[in-house]
Amino acid sequence: xxxxxxxxxxxxSLQNQFDLEEPRAxxxxxxxxxxEAQRNSEADGSSQGSSWxxxxxxxxxxxxxxxxxxxxxxxxxxxxxxxxxxxKTEFYFASVIEEEMQKVEAAATPETRKLIDxxxxxxxxxxxxxxxxxxxxREEGNRKQILHAMITNFETRINLLQDVLDRIEEIxxxxxxxxxxxxx
Length: 184
Description:
83% of the residues lie in helices and 0% in strands. It has helices spanning 2-13, 27-44, 48-80, 84-106, 113-138, 143-183.
C-alpha cells in the first residue's frame, strides 16, 4: 500500500504540469511522409552520409595513385644514380653468366642432373644475395664496397658455373672410360 501512496503523491505533485495539447491536424500524415522520404533517399544512395563515402573513396584512390607514382619516380631516380660504367659491367657479367648456364643445361645427362640441380640452387641463393646488394646500393650505403661486393658476386657465379662444367666433363670422361673398359 505504501507504494500506491507514493505513486499518488507523485501524480499529485506533478498535477497541471502534463502536456495535454493535441498535435495539429495532419501531424501523423506529415510524419509518415517525412519517414517515407528518408527511406527512399537511403535506398537511392542519395543520403548525405553516402555522399561523404563517395568523396572519401575518391580522395583515397587519388592518394593511392599519387603515392605509387611518387614511389616509382624515386625508384627510377635511384636506378639512374648507378654509375654507367657499372651498368655496362653488370650487363657483361649477366650475359657471361647466361651463356655459362646454357652450357651447363646443354651438358645435362641423367648422371649429372643432381649436380646441376644443386648448382641451380646455389645460383638462386647468389642471385638473392645480389638483389640484397642492389637494395643496399639504393639506400646509399658505402657505394665502393657494395659495388665491389656485387662484382665479386658475379665472379663467384661465373666460377661456380665453370667448376660445374669441369666436373661434368670429368664425369663424362669417367663414363666413357668405363664404357670402353666394358667393351674390351
